[in-house]
Structures are given as C-alpha cells and as structure tokens.
User: What shape does this take?
Amino acid sequence: MNGARWASSLLAAIGLAGLALSTASAETTQEKALYDAAKKEGAVSWYSGILDQPICDQVGKAFQAKYPGIQVSAIKTTSQVAFQRLLQDLKAGQVQSDVFTTTDIGHMMFLKSKDQLVKYVPENEAGMVDAVKNVDPDGYFHTSWVGISAIVYNTAKVKPADAPKDWPDLTDPRWKGQITFGSPNYSGMVGVWTVAMENRYGWDYFTKLNALDPQIGRSIDDAVTVLNSGERIVGMGNAASALRSAAKGNPLAVVYPSSGTLIVISPSAIIKGTPHPNAAKLFMEFLTGPDYSKILAANFEQPLRGDVAPAAGGKSLADMKPFAPTADQIEKQLPPNKAKWRDTFGM
Amino acid sequence: MTRRSLAPDLTGGDLAPVAKPAVATPAESAARPARRFVTLDPSTVIWVGATLLLVFMIVAPMARLLFSSFQSTETGQLTLENYVTAYGNLRRLVGLGNSLLYGAAVVLVATGFAVPLAWAVARTDMPAKGLVRATVLGAFITPSYLGAIGWILLAGPNAGWLNRLWMALTGAHAGIVNVYSFAGLVLVTALYAFPYIFVFTADALDRVSSEMEEAAHILGLSPFRTILRVTLPLVLPAILGGAIIVFLDTVALFGTPAVIALPARVNIMTLQLWQFFEFPVRAEAAAAYAVPLVLITIAMLALQRTILGRKGYVSLTGKGGGRSLMRLGRLRWAVLGFCFTVCALAVFLPYLALAQAAFSRAWGQGFSFANLTLGNFAYLFGEASSRQVILNTFIFSAATACLAVVLALIVAYVVGRRLVIGGGVLAGLCMAPLVVPGIVLAIGLYAVYSAPPLMLYGTAAILVLGFTTRFLPIAFANCTASLRSLNPEMEEAVRILGGSRFVAVRRVVVPLLKKSLIGTWLLVFIPASRELSTAIFLVAAKTRVISVMILDLSENGSFETLAALGFFLLGVTILIVLAGYRLVGRDFLLRKS
Assistant: This one.
C-alpha cells in the first residue's frame, strides 16, 4: 500500500512535469505577457493558511517548473498567524507576501474594506466548478481551497449500512457517548458548520447534539485522531484528512450527506503594494488552473476544477451537492453562534 | 602568573587551593589598582552591554505589549476598552481563576514527583541513576501535545488501554480512569513539567557538601530528619525557583489544555485567550488579558524573596567540603520503584501507546504484524525538507541555550551580587517573558524584530532571539538559585588579590557552577526545541522547526509520522543526555570521580 502510494505520487510528479512541458507552449497571450513581466520580478512569496508545508512546497516547485526563473517562497502557518503577520507587515509598510491565502473569508472582507487587495480575475477561474467560482463578485479574491465538512465514521465499529446518511442522523440517540466534533471557538470550519446547521435545522440541532455528550475537540481535524483511537465512532470532520488517513489503511470512511455537503471556501488574493505584482498575478492563474488542482487531488484534497478527478474514496464537487452559507450570513451569525455554543455546551 | 595558577586548581577538582593566590607577586597586586583607574574594567563593559541587550530583548516587546493593551483595535487611540472586553465577562474571570488553581495543583504534584527523584539521583546510592536522569529529560523533551495524546490513548474513558485492561481483568463495564477531567489535566501536565524542578533541585543537591549532614548525624538526628531539617532547606531556593517556573509555564500552557481540558470542558485562561485570535482578531484584548499574568509573576518573585528571607543558603564555600552518598540498603529498591513509577507514567507507558502508531502503517487498525512498518521513520529522514527541519531545530535550540546561559549568568550575577541599583526590576523583567502567553509575546517579537531597523524576518537570528527572550527566565531562575549557593567570599578573594570581576566570574564562578550551567543549558535547550507559539510567528520557509512540523502533521491527520517524530526526539535526547553526563564526568565534589 505504502509502496504503491510512493510510486503513484512519483508518477503524479513525473506526469506533472510532463504536463508542465506540454502546457508551456499552450500559453495564452495574456499568460505569456504576464510570464515575461513576472520573470523580470523573479520571485513571488505566498503566505498560506491552507494545506501543509510539504504540499505548499510541491505547489511552489510545480510553479517553478512551469515558469522557470520565478522563485516561489511559500510559508504555511495557520490562517490566524498568517493574517496577524500580514497586518504587522502592512502596519510597518513592508509587504512581505505577494499572495495571501486564508481559511477565513472574514480576513478577505476586512482587507478588501481597507483597500489592501489588488483586483484581479484570473483567466483560469472560468474552468473551475461553479460552486467555487466568483466568491467575490468584485473579483478581489478567488477560491484556492475548499474544506469539505462531512460525516466521518470508524468502519471497524460502525457498518456502512448503519452509518449516518444525513446531518440530522447525527443527533440520533444511538450515538450517545459516541460522537465527536470540533469547536467554533477554535475552528473556522466548525464555525461555518454551526451557521449552516442553524439555518437548516435551527439551534435546537445543537441542543440535541449536546444531549449525546459529544467529545468536543478544537480543530475540525481532531475528529480523525479521536475516531482512529476508537475513543468515539462517528463525527463531523474534514473529508480530506479522513481520506488521507483511510488511504493508509485506517478504518475511516467519509459520508457525503444526502441533502448536501457543507463546503468552506478559502480564498487567495494579491496584496496591494507587493514588490512582485505580475508574478503574483501569474501565481493566481496557477492556483486557479488544472496543475494546482491535480496537486490537491494527489494529496487527497478537493480539486477545484471539473477536469481534475478527486482522490480515491472522494467525490467531485459537482456530485456532492455542495452548499455553503453566504459570507454575509457567516459574518453576521458566527459571533453570536460562538456565544450560543458556549451556552449550550458550556465551553 | 597568579591567574594561571588559579585556574587549573579550581577546575582540577579541589576547592582547597582557593586560598592559594595569596602568593601573588607584590608588584602585580600593586600595579592592578593603579591600572583600573586609567582603563575601564572590562567586566563593567560586559555587564553594561548585557544589561542593555537584555533591556532591548525584553523591554521592547513587553513595552509594546503593555502599550497595545491600552490601544483601541480600530483607531489606535488610548482606551480601557480592551480590559472591559477581556474581563467584562464571568466566563473569562472563571477561566483566570481555574488557571491559577491549575497552576498551583500542577506545582504540588510536580514537586511531589521531582524532589524525591532528585534526592534519590543526587544523594543516594540508588542503582540505574543514569537511566532515571535520561528518562526524566526524555519526559521533558516530549512535546506536550504528544504526551497528552499518549495519555488519551492510555486513559481515554472508552478505548484507553488502562481502562480496557481493567475491564478485561475485572469484567467491569466501565473504566476506572478518565483523562478528560481536571485531575487528568493536572496529572498529565505535571508529568511533563516536573523535570524543571528536578533539574533545579538535582543541581543544587549536587553542590551540598556532607559536612552539615554529618554534623546533624553526630548530634543525633535520624537520617530522615536530617534530610528534612538540613538537606532540603539548603536547596529550598532551587526548589522554589523550579516551582515558580512550573507555575508560570503551566498557566501559559496551551498544548495540553487544548487536547484535554477542552473535551473535559474545563475552562482555563489560555483556551479563552486563543479565542481572541479568531476573527475578528482582538490582539489588543489578548494583551490586556495577559497583563495580569505579568503582575502575578512579579508577585511570585516577591513571595519567593519573602520565603527565602535573609537566611543563608550557601552550600559551596572555599573550604572544600566532601560529599558522601547516603547508603539506602534494601530501601534502595523501594526508592528505585518510586523513580521507575514516575518514569513509567511520564515516558514508558505513553510511549508504549504511541509506539503502536509510530510503527504502524495505519494506527487505527490496531496491532498486527502486517501493519508493522518503519516507513514513518523512513519518511522523516527520506525527505530533504524534514531533515532540514530537524537540523534547524537542534541548531537554533543550541544557539538559544548558549546565548541564554551567558546572558542569564551575567544578569543573575549583577543582580545577585547587587552590582547595580534596581536589580529587582531587572530580575522581574527577566522572569516576565515566560508568563506572557507565547502567541502574545510572539506578536511583540515579530513587530520589533521584523520591522526596520532590524529586518530580521526570514533569518535564523530572529528565531534564536525570540527563543532566547522566551526562555531567558528559566536560565535566569536557575543561575540565580545556583549563585545563592556560592559563597561570595571566594570571588572577594579574587578581587582582593587584584583580579577583576570578569576574572572572578570566569575563573571561580563558572568553573564551580559548571555542572549547574550545563543543567541550565539543557533547561533552555529542551523547551526551545519544542516551542511552538513563538516559532509559528517567526519561521520562514527555510527556517521551519519541529514544533511547526508537528502542528502541520496533527492538522492533516498524519498521526503515524507524528508519533515517529516523537520517538526520534526521545531517542536523541536520551543519547545527548547520556553522552553529556559521561563527558562532564561525575560531580567534582565526589573526590574519587
């Protein structure tokens, strides 16, 4: 299994390199002009609140292979830290990052309102799945990663036929003492989940969940650890971490809820005043293009384009009935939801 | 001439010759004072320089912290609104109260583990001392996140190994231990915090000569009472120093509470603090919430001063006391049993549970031969990037430890020997960074170090400086405790004979405290190697460290690799410690070493 994975990722890398060579000639004129201008800048730096450092490095390498002469420096931290650093940089008048990616769309709304973003609509966005296109009608920021909040369970302890099928199934009393999820006070993805569930089923949904004595972790990814340890057997979790862990042979499976899967969009934008504006635009093209989505799929993350197949065990965005609260809803409902959460669950 | 004859005698292992320099040539001692009028004493330059550096390293970010706590998030104007946000809520006040309780409980439990262990290792003929020492430091280097997960695997109420074992043995339907409780939180935290007190206390015990114990014995005190009335009181400054560090470290801890207190629904301060960094970010309110911690630190130091009072704690004099180990007889096995129990709780048991993950392809499958692999370790060394991360961590931590020991020794000396006015303020400053929650300190550090004129962002230097600021308190507390045990008469002898302060420190203080300084070095090196909150703010692509890698691995669910990394850290630490103690040799008060 492990050997096969190594081999397949190696093949994927070779494939990517080949693809880079073949697409190099198929550049559009706009892309070519951007590349020429970007080459003069020679570098692009990326503050990433998404993925992990090795995957961010893969993205950087693939970009460098496709556009020789432009060095990528990718720094992965948490979105909160990346945002704090960005704010400090802006305060000091020293923009260190050309492209900023965050899991919290609120960061982008804030930067946009302060006029700190560059408006740019990548040509490649046209090829992305509809559900993740045009997150900002004004074209300042664009989807770079989609968090998939789904139902996850331990296959050694729950038969596929017995697993919850839809969101309301999680509140079934038979999961008493057996269910786990994160907290909106520490995880943006869980926060969006509270908004989505409240809008569909009312806050009562969480009162019912509390009656089941859930184990509440911090991040949305904690569910995978808790389920693997056998401490709890069903939960709400991040599909990508669950698929990655399942691919190693762990007893985990993902259920995409029948009424629709919750997606959380993480956007990227170009920061105003960057020293590498053209390289930043080219990088935005790359993040919306197929090569990047292939890297995502190879790492069990959700590809953003219809022309790239998802990882084994996953579903394509078009097939999972994706839904998401609007940015306005999140902005309005999330802060009171955090307070309501503390009242309901006591933490 | 004089100085040359002094050095080898002191480092050579005998204290008696301290009086030897009396043979200084008359010409030399006459020339010295005259020269000092003309040229500036080099030692003055050194400590003025060190103090200035310290002021910059600590005062700059701390002042920024204090200032921003009075600043409006939106407008930057002066305001008290952050304090209202931070404290105008019962839940936050309860969190603060719980944190103080948590800190106090951890100190009690950790002292209960550490002091007997330190005594057994330093003062008795108990066997397997090297292994106990190495295991204690193994517990120390275990990232709190990993230790906590190990304990969840052991004592999770549903699937914990200990509970399953209990249920299998007794046929009971429920387990007996639940890690998700306040008691569980305290125990797990204490298991990875007690090494602070252990190292402080063991170092101090190593320096106590047997004279006073023998005197007590001759006067008819039983061995047990001798320990209580003579030995332990002599090392009280060290125990208190360690306890204060544990208290402050616990109150500011995030890793273990995030994994245990949150599911246990125990509300503590750092969990509240983290929420200020969710959008909309209120870093200023976080700063306001952190300011009382600085006040608490100052209160702790005042308390320490009151407890220690003006009593004498000098255990190292120029009179060359010998030291003998206490013969425990059969009791040694009981003592060893206690030490091994603590080691088992802190290291053997949790790592046994983690081993299942570290050596598995898929840890959720449980143990089977088909599931065994070394692939997780191969990944750690196979990837150039993870090799770089490991190398970075050890280099940065070692540089931090060296810088912190030098600075702390200088400042502890300046304060301890009352060479400057306002030494108490300086001491308070030195202790403050530990208690300021890492993420808050990190913002201050990032603001100061990455902006002009320093522009250190992206360099290794910013990490080393950041770590040094963060862990200077530990080095300072240990140096202060060590200096208390050193009789100033020995340095005065050097001064009387015409040596400068610099010579006194270099030729007397450093050699005498050699072992303690190595202990201090480790006390900084280890937490630096596992530090996350400052690191995450200061790393760049090429300067990543293990703690940041651990966060990445935990976020993407790669628990197998994470556990393997934990094992690697444990193995390396044990090797370094065993090699270190062999190199330094045994304590020089043991004359036959």
About this structure: The longest helix of chain A spans residues 2-24. Confidence is low (pLDDT under 50) at residues 1-5, 17-26 of chain A.
